[in-house]
Amino acid sequence: MTKQRVLVAYGTKHGATAGIAEEIGRVLDEEGFATEVVPAAEVTTVADFDAVVLGSALYMNHWQHDALRCAHRHADELARRPVWLFSSGPVDSSAEQHEIPPVAQVAEELEHLHARGHVTFGGSVTAETPGFVARSMVRHGKGGDFRSPEHIRRWAQEIGAELRADEAGPAKD
Ligand SMILES: Cc1cc2nc3c(=O)[nH]c(=O)nc-3n(C[C@H](O)[C@H](O)[C@H](O)COP(=O)(O)O)c2cc1C
User: Domain named Flavodoxin-like: which ranges (predicted)?
Assistant: First the structure.
């Protein structure tokens, strides 16, 4: 049987979200899917994929603009296939402790795209993150890398399980 093709696209300013997308891609590869991980700005079509995972870093409660543009540019095609969205993320352990609902803008996209699910992962701001706000956060002890590989892997495995169930078709009794 040919492998289902899954696109994992991401919006990032400073690279932390690329790491999350890579991890999702790795898990889906391990689970037997043919996975491509690409920056959202480079997505020219989603028509070649059976399913799409689209995510972004949050800045002031909004997705990074490449990810949002990607969602809008491919809205029709996305709405016709299984789609999951993710956001990152709080620079503390809150995302691991409880489910964090999507911000208003992302809740709208979830509805438009008929997405199957959304998760918020922890984010990362470290001494290497450029920008005044990031520097100030780190200086005041509010930085750190809160991306949890376990959380990311668990979510990606759930996606894999759902896609496999789709492929198997409705259970017969
Ligand atoms: C200026 C600034 C604003 C941020 N705003 C939010 C926010 O509104 N909500 C949130 O959960 N995280 C926020 N964060 C944390 C980032 O989303 C987090 O650091 C993320 O991992 C960055 O991803 P990137 O490196 O892929 O750009 C903010 C970080 C900075 C530096």
Answer: 6-160
